[in-house]
Amino acid sequence: RYNNFYIYIGVVVLIVAALSYVFTHPIQLYVSSTSSMEPTIYPENVMFINKTAYRSKLPKKNDVVLINSETASVPVIHRVIACPGDIVTIKNGLIKVNGKSVGFDAIDMMTSKTVVLEENTYYHKGDNINSYHDIMRLDQILGKLIYVSGGVSK
Q1: What distance in Å separates the CA atoms of residue 77 and residue 65, rounded to the nearest whole number?
Q2: CA distance 14 to 20
Q3: 77 Cβ contact list (under 8 Å, min separation 6)
Q4: What b/e sequence results for 45-57 when a residue is b if at least 16 CB atoms lie within 10 Å of its CB, and e otherwise?
Q5: Is residue 141 classed as helix, strand or coil in its secondary structure?
Q6: What angle do CA 33, 91, 32 make, to 5 degrees?
Q7: Collapsing DSSP states into helix, strand and coil, what is residue 63?
Q8: What's the pTM?
Q9: Which residues pair with 50 in a beta bridge?
Q10: Cα gap 47→60, rounded to integer Å
């Protein structure tokens, strides 16, 4: 009789502890809702985002980040392809950083521009050739991808 009572109390304590951990920990679950990162990440993939990854260090090239984009209605998962001080050139459908191809094409073959990234600005692009690319500020980055269900292929 007393054993069941203690088991019940133990289960309740574990549930409360688990819920408080989930709601106070810097890890966020996020489900991809776009195809912008295909073939690396597909819609409906579940991801773990570290919301505190950039409190003590800055994003690096190739980091996959969750962005509060000004051009999208929901947060977007994209790859950092250029950092502050880098020169991004888009010409004839190719994106180059500091004169070197980054392996990503631009959607619009007619776009031609050069951008020097200022302090706390980054350039991002999805892995899908049809995804958009743009400048983002450090304060638009919501966190860094740390795990994807099914793995990350790149």
Answers
A1: 6
A2: 10
A3: 30, 32, 34, 36, 37, 41, 47, 64, 65, 66, 67, 126, 145
A4: bebebbeebbeee
A5: strand
A6: 5
A7: coil
A8: 0.79
A9: 27, 144
A10: 19
Q: Which two tokens stand for residue 9?
A: 């109390």
φ/ψ bin of 27: left (φ > 0), alpha (ψ from -120 to 50), beta (otherwise): beta
Give, in degrees to the nearest 5, the angle at Cα 65 between 123 and 134: 25
Q: What is the pLDDT along the chain (154 residues), one digit of tens a residue?
A: 567 888 888 889 988 887 776 666 788 888 888 899 998 999 889 999 999 899 889 999 999 999 998 877 889 999 999 999 999 998 888 899 999 988 777 766 677 889 999 999 999 999 988 888 899 999 999 999 999 986 554 4
How many helices (H) and strands (E) would you count in the chain? 1, 11
Cβ–Cβ under 8 Å, residues 58 and 120: no
Query: In sequence order, what E strands does 9-112 have?
Result: 27-31, 46-50, 64-67, 76-82, 87-91, 94-97, 100-105
Q: Tell me if the bond preceding 39 is cis, omega within 30° of 0.
A: yes
**Two structure tokens written together for 75:** 């947060």
Gap between the terminal Cα atoms of the chain: 56
